[in-house]
Amino acid sequence: ELEEEEEEEEAPAKQGNPFAGFSLPALPVLTLPAPAKKQKKPSAAATDRGTMGNWERTIKEGIRDGDIPTWNIAPESVKGTKVPKIKLKTGDVKVVGRDKGPGIDIAAKVACVSSVHCQFEMEGNKLYVTDLGSTNGTYVDGQEIRKNNRFRVFNGASVRLGAANRNGEPFVTFQADLTGANEMDRNSEYGQVQAIIEGLGGPSTVVNFLFINVAFQVGFYLLLQLQTD
Fold it and tell me: What are the Acidic residues biased-composition ranges (predicted)?
């Protein structure tokens, strides 16, 4: 027993690690900001392209590859209903009416719109609207068009279905915009002349009027010559 006690006394006492369970706090990671990229200054051509209209760009640069002439006829917001946007490509014809049904492509559920109101069609790059015998009429830039008469719509023009009224009843107004092709602007000299011709009934009506007028003037001149002789 004495020997065992001596061995126990000779055995060195185990000392614990004073740093056990102690960890150094994590140091924050420093990140350097990335160098700012130099912004390229837009070229003069790109600036001009962003500020000019599509038809003007087409005149200056020509029709680009992939440009497809398209008429976008966008309706203004109408309280209480949603009128869909109309898109036309060459040869397309769209009929607008109050309710969707046979023969009606675009439904505008507004009281001023007739069951079969008007027709939009694209011929070449030109847009035409025809009033199909509506009750409240079809107007282009405020001018009422004749029933069943095809009327030219120029780029930037507005087409209204239904007359302006004082009772607060809503009517439908579309804004016509041509993309992907060269179309003279409504305010250009060419557009104004064409608008006057269309307002008089179209080129054939104007030609017939001029022919009759010239024939009348010639006949009147010959009659005066006979009287003087």
Answer: 1-10
Domain count, the chain: 1
Tell me the C-alpha distance between 156 and 187, whole Å. 9
- How many C-beta atoms lie closer than 10 Å to residue 117's C-beta? 26
Q: What is the CATH number of the domain that holds 130?
A: 2.60.200.20
* pLDDT for the residue numbered 225: 85
Q: What's the pLDDT tens digit per position in 118-171? A: 999 999 888 999 999 999 899 998 888 889 888 989 888 999 998 766 566 678
Q: Which residue type does 33 have?
A: P
Name residue 94's beta-bridge partners.
120
Does residue 81 belong to any structural domain of this protein?
Answer: yes
pLDDT > 70? residue 109: yes
State the residue range of the domain holding 95: 53-184
CB 177 within 8 A of CB 167: no
- The verdict on residue 4 lying in a domain is no
pTM above 0.85, yes or no: no
What is the rounded distance in angstroms from the CA atom of residue 4 to the CA atom of residue 213?
A: 147
Both tokens assigned to 216:
């009348």
208 occurs within a structural domain: no
Q: By three-state DSSP, how is residue 215 classified?
A: helix
Listing DSSP states for 192-210 in one string gives: HHHHHHHHTT-HHHHHHHH
